[in-house]
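Below is how a single chain appears once it has passed through the pipeline. First comes the sequence as given, then the structure the pipeline wrote out for it. We keep one example in the README because the format questions we get most often are answered faster by looking than by reading.
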Amino acid sequence: MNNVIVYSKNNCMQCKMTKRFLKEHNVSFEERNINQEPQYLDTLKQQGFQSVPVVMNDAIDPIVGFRPDSLRELVD
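Resulting structure:
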């Protein structure tokens, strides 16, 4: 599955666990770190999100937090 985007921030355990899960299951993703690229924080707020990680993909609804049950949908 392509076009997986993970919005994350520094020192976020749920973000680390989400990225580790995706890597372990060979799901490629683009990381958008809101500490390094603060414009993405505005994007998330405009869409109603108040926490990270947020995982987005065209094929599924956004996943907020570390949710291995939902992340499995991204595994081929």
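The first strand starts at residue 5 and ends at 8.

See the next section for the split statistics.
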